[in-house]
Amino acid sequence: MKSIIFDMDGTLADSMAMWRSLGIDYLKSHGVEITSTDAQEMTTMSLKMSSTYMKEKFKLPLTPEEIYDDMRHIAEDFYAKECKLKDGALDVLEAFHEANIPMMLGTGTPEEFFDPFLKRENMFKYFEAIATCDGLNLKKDNPKFFLTCCEMAGFDPKETVLVDDAYFAIVAAKEAGLTTICMYDEANDNMLRELTLSSHMFISDLKVLKKIFL
Dihedrals φ, ψ of 124, to 5°? Predict the structure, then answer.
């Protein structure tokens, strides 16, 4: 292993509960009950992508831009004031940084949301690059997302590890040739078997990464 791509939400940041409820609660406020399939589909998207999806799929009487703005305020406030790191996240990032192992962030969250959070936690210094779904115009269930991440940072996919909590990302990264480590998050309790079988390794504690690679 020569380089690492970290996911943010559910991997480094304890934020999946907010994301899981955001779209569902917003649609409920407009009288729309969605299926688990629709909810899962939206987890692969950025907020802008899911806003367009909501408009087209559920025919909301709003533009995608209005839907996005409504949800954006909730997400921005969460990252600015409430979002916390998962246990051991800073310790692991600092250890890899000191060992000169290059890292990047690959996330579905827009930069304007996570920027104050990363600044608050002094995390920008750890990453060679940051890729977002909106920035690449790619969802994380597409292997091209991870190949483009590697290209951005100068990583060799065959020498790169993805640490992520999402099944669709694990599958896509594996198809792209990366080694995959699934990080446990309670939001994915209903898919533990699939996550364990699809990833090269399953962990429930970020600090385990130090024992594996250092």
Answer: -60, -30
Taking residue 45's Cβ as centre, other Cβ atoms within 10 Å add up to 20
**Is the pLDDT assigned to residue 44 strictly greater than 80?**
no
Within this chain, do residues 103 and 202 fall inside the same structural domain, yes or no? Answer: yes
Chain centroid, CA 102 distance in Å: 18
pLDDT digits (tens, 9 = 90+) for 139-181: 999 999 999 999 999 999 999 999 999 999 999 999 999 999 9
Alpha helix ranges (H) inside the chain: 16-29, 36-43, 47-58, 64-81, 89-98, 111-120, 133-136, 143-153, 167-175, 192-198, 208-213
Number of domains in the chain: 2
Residues 6+ apart with CB under 8 A from 34: 23, 24, 27, 58
71 and 42 co-located in one domain? yes
CATH code of the domain covering residue 139 = 3.40.50.1000
Residues 125, 92 share a domain: yes
Question: Residues near 63 by Cβ (< 8 Å), separated by ≥ 6?
Answer: 55
User: What's this model's pTM, rounded to 2 decimal places?
Assistant: 0.86
Q: State mean pLDDT over 110-130.
A: 94
% pLDDT > 70, the chain: 100
Are 149 and 198 found together in one domain?
yes
pLDDT grade for 43, boundaries at 50, 70 and 90: confident
